[in-house]
Each structure stands twice: as structure tokens, then as C-alpha cells.
Amino acid sequence: MPHWLVKSEPNSYSFADLQRDGHTIWDGVRNNAAALHLKAMRVGDKLFVYHSQEGLAVVGIARVAREAYPDPSDAAGRFVAVEIEPVRALARPVTLAEMKAEPALAGMAMLRQSRLSVSPVTDGEWSTILRLADQQG
Fold this sequence. Notes:
By secondary structure, this protein is an alpha+beta fold.
């Protein structure tokens, strides 16, 4: 099953907000490459939620609850949204600095294309981030 990473500015919508709400529409993605990743998501796929701007860390795991459909915030009808629901917070956040320092993550799409708001995560990268989250900081 594919894994993904989505970025959110925590002052706009944080992982805690997702946990409180129980689900949300992941909309507003206007980059074509990121939109293609949204279109590839399937119900049940898991994703990391990464706090950008503030925090700069993977903080939680969510799951796709509804596959891509027309983004209600896009009047032009060009882009899609998905719905996600929280699974759990990580034992501790995995910071961007930790990710950059981890050789197993050197090829990670998020690190290679840092401006992309939605990116794929390989099985190995997924396991590595979970391992880092379980280590003492």
C-alpha cells in the first residue's frame, strides 16, 4: 500500500486540529505534481502529516478516507481534493534536521523537492521515520 506525506502550516491547520475534527478535506493544492499525487491516493493509504513553516517536523499519521474528487475551493475545476482522517500522533516529532541527517532518507521526495506539498514516501522511508519517532530525542 502506498504511503504519502502532506504538509500543513500548523497555524492554519495542525495535526491537533485534524485529531479534534476527526477528518478534513485536503484541498487548496495548486501544484500539478502534488495534485497528481492526490489523484493517486486510495482509501486506506497512510500518510505522514508534516508541519511546515513552524515546527518543521513529521508529527502524525493520517489515512485517506475519500479518494480524489473536484476541489470545492477551486472555482476553475482544475484541481482535486481528498479527505483524510487521523490515525495517531507520532511518539515524538521527527524534525527536518533529523530527516536530512538520516542517510536512509537521502532520496526522499520531500527532501529533494522541498516545495512540494504532497509527496510519495517509500516503504523504507516510512519505516525509517517511524523508527526515528520511537527513539529518544
